[in-house]
Amino acid sequence: MRKPATEKNQSEIAYEVLRQKLLNREFAPGARVRYGPLGDEIGMSATPVREAVGRLVSEGLIELVPQLGAVVKQPTITDTTELYEMREAIEPFAAAKASQFIAARQLKSLQATIDTMQKLHRSVMTGKVQALDVATRFDKSDLKFHQTILNAVNNQRMLTVVGDFHLLTEIIGAARHSYSTEVLEMTIDDHVQILQGLSKRDAEWTRKAMTVHIQNSRQLTLSRLQNECPQ
Prior knowledge:
It contains nine helices and two strands. With 231 residues, it is mainly alpha-helical. A hairpin with a 3-residue loop joins strand 1 (62-65) and strand 2 (69-72). Helix 2 (35-42) packs across helix 3.
């Protein structure tokens, strides 16, 4: 039976709210997702929240655990390795393709995200804030950078799939104990190289720069998860 439009809309709203909460690190890996309290917070019943959780289960972001219910997935070494392998297979191709189609306004947006990340990095270097305190804002800028590149390709399927990869990456990132200034600096340098390739309309430069960026991120993440996550 087809669901009423209002119920479908509530399910979609619950889905977007949950995804955003995951990105904002409001639900850490292993945290329970309670349908009733979350529905009360959003202003709806538990039913659309349950449906939204079902979508996130199918995407591998949440898992259903006996006697616990819906739980944010704990990343494993295997999960992380597979995730970065998929990103490395798709994103360099997407970035190279974007170099041929990206608009001036999108290049300007990419530079703006780098400027934001550099500002956050300087605030850490000057001791105004701790690196962990800027993690969420830094990750949002990182995500926007990659989404802008994918939008330039104008491939909705690729945008959806790689978007899910990035969301999983952010959930894995939430398990990190700290962000060092070296991590922030490495990410910024990688993004600068990618933007240079895009600005030059150089597909091969852009592809290589994106590959290096993903490989750097994978090495960093795996090294930090090695003693924290199950195999």
